[in-house]
Amino acid sequence: MLTIAVLTGCRPHLLQQTIDSFTKHHPDIWDSAYRTVIHNTGDSATADILDRYDWHLRRTTNELLSIGDASQLLGEQVRATQPDYVLRLEDDYLAHPGAWWNVATGMLTDVDLVRLQRANERTKASCVVCGATTRWTYVPGGKIADDAHYTHRPTLMRFETFDSLFPYRHERDAMRKFHGRKSAQLVPGVFSHLAPGRPLSLRKNGGRT
Fold it and tell me: Options 3.90.550.10, 3.40.1790.10, 3.10.310.30, 3.50.50.60; which CATH number does 2-193 get?
């Protein structure tokens, strides 16, 4: 079973595009998954979008949490579902058509995380934790690296790996816990960033995630 874990808040126009594109291009995956969402801040515009879809677990915060703190709540909801796989998704990614599920789950027999963002979008070329240049080896359907850091960008993980990162304070803390595990990158990938270069509305405390 798959759990789709969505983190959103204060960006209804982006959230609408994220969910609409997912349900349009990958309806079977969306409909068969256990769907959980954290609505950070509880703003009414985002609530209106969320009301249009069915959620198995939906939680609203009463204040603006950092992405790290909101992710802890998301982790609690995922843990309650006990899935086989977890797809973590924030509210600013556009899903593209194309078969990917079988390739991604197949990769998880050899790696601990599969990055689902489009492979042609810019990401860090080195490991955030140790600074080593990330060296990718191409395989059917994508590429694999021994030491590519964890990311809050769209990913697919086995539940056991996802759960092992908790608790963590922020994304870099999760990166340190993940360090040393293998990652894969789908090629061409599934999701493109709708707001590249713009700070997430969910951030606070000087941009801390």
Answer: 3.90.550.10
Parse the chain into domains and list their residue ranges: 2-193
Q: Is 146 left (phi over 0), alpha (psi -120 to 50) or beta?
A: alpha
Q: What is the number of H-type helices and E-type strands within the chain?
A: 7, 11
Residue 150 has pLDDT above 90, yes or no: yes
Q: Which amino acid is at 63?
A: E
Residues in a beta bridge with 39: 8, 60
The CB-side HSE value for 144 (13 A sphere, CA atoms) comes to: 15
Q: Is 39 helix (H, G, I), strand (E, B) or coil?
A: strand
- Using an 8 Å Cβ cutoff, are 168 and 70 in contact? no
Percent of the chain with pLDDT over 90: 85
Residue 124's pLDDT is 86
User: DSSP alpha helices (H): ranges in the chain?
Assistant: 12-25, 27-32, 44-50, 67-81, 101-107, 159-164, 171-178
- CA pair distance 135, 52, nearest whole angstrom: 42
Cα pseudo-dihedral 53, 6, 117, 123, rounded to 10: 150
Q: What are phi and psi of 89, to 5 degrees?
A: -145, 125
